[in-house]
Amino acid sequence: MEVAMILLLLVGSALAGTDQGARDEFTGLAVDFFMGKDKLASHLEMTPSEDCVEGDMQMNEEQKQAYYMMREVTAKNRARVRRAATKAFRLWPDNTFVYKFDPRLSSAMRAKFMQAVETYKATTCIQFHEAKEGYSGSIPPLTVYGTGNGCFSTVGGPGGKINLQEGRCNHLGVCLHEIGHALGAYHEHTRPDRREHVSIKEENIRNGYEGNFKVVDRLLVGIYDLQSAMHYACDAFSKDGRSETIVPHDELMKEKMGLQRKLSRLDIYKFNKMYSCYESCPDDLETACKHGGVPSKDCTCLCPDEYTGIYCETFKKTTECSAEYKDTSGIIRSPGFTRGSRYPSNTECVYAIECPEGTKVHLTFRSFDIEGWGCFFDTFETKTGPAVEEVYPNLYCDKALRGKTLTSKENLALLKFNSDSYYNYPGYELEYVCE
């Protein structure tokens, strides 16, 4: 790790002699990658914690009994098992999550937990209430503390606890994930429909941890979400820390699993659905949301970054070079490409290509040459999966896409180019066709 960082710094020094200036420091994605933080949250949750199942779920005896029944369910006993699970794993009453802090929990950890709480408050109808000294409410509070080993949570409410070990669990993704468990959510990779989306490589699982990959039967809310904050990374519980144990059928999704930098739109939809937040919304709202939007707690649509409007019907043109394409074919070029010059610094171009329903977007890159160095600086982003599932883009740089063709899963492809203030390259030219 240290050697790799030194090599990059040396490269930066060598480039300093060019007329485009030198990089003063490595920040953002570069630091996250070289410090091993790009999927840190899911790795922390996977570290076995005291008396937990699947790494970070702590259960009482009634819940454990129901949980193990859910893992061994049959068609004959499914109804009985689900009744037992409903009794053991409960949602918070009155849509109200009550919590209190252990006095020993640091202010930094409290702040990170509250950052996650604000995310849930902003996107769901669930109420969050801190039980301060003198609290006399009827809902038993969950205690947030940091004296135990690991990052873990009880499952469902009311009451329970979340442990955020000091110096280890101070990560937004960890807090989002553990609050998710406390609200009643399970891990995504144990859904009964997971076989349609991922394969489990049992030969790569650490001895004794095979049970963490058992399917857990339950009523499903929404569709499988590879980019969920409740999904582990592809090396979860691997025997050597590198081998893949969870492999998505779609290769492009591999690097997006386990990032946990935010709640996905499907996460938000599922929590709102679990807590009946849509009861007053029109019945057709879900189908009315366009371009990957999902119903919001306010009975409008929660949109991807590229769209706006009540139903996510309007492309958000944020810069001059951004554009929406609805013709069945076309050419897209980086700024300055046709003049034979290099793309400018500090540029952001967002492209939305929408083909007719029933067709897919085929992207062929005739030319592709942007700054490399690990895609930490200038990047070309693609979102070509099902629109409602896409949260994190695939990143490309250098000459990675030259001569390549990408095909969308549906009729929408979202692209984005970013350049920073340093080195400029020739750019890209791509052709798209709807077929």
Automatic annotation (TrEMBL):
Coiled coil: none annotated. Residues 321-435 form the CUB domain. One of its GO terms (molecular function) is metalloendopeptidase activity. CDD domains: CUB (cd00041), ZnMc_astacin_like (cd04280). PROSITE patterns: ASTACIN, CUB. Residues 1-16 form the signal peptide. The keyword Plastid does not apply. Keywords: Disulfide bond, Hydrolase, Metal-binding, Metalloprotease, Protease, Signal, Zinc. Residues 83-278 form the Peptidase M12A domain. Zn(2+) binds at residues 177, 181, 187. The keyword Zinc applies. Binds 1 zinc ion per subunit. InterPro entries: Astacin-like_dom, CUB_dom, MetalloPept_cat_dom_sf, Peptidase_M12A, Peptidase_Metallo, Sperma_CUB_dom_sf. Pfam families: Astacin, CUB. GO terms for biological process: proteolysis. This is Metalloendopeptidase. The gene is LOC110990107.
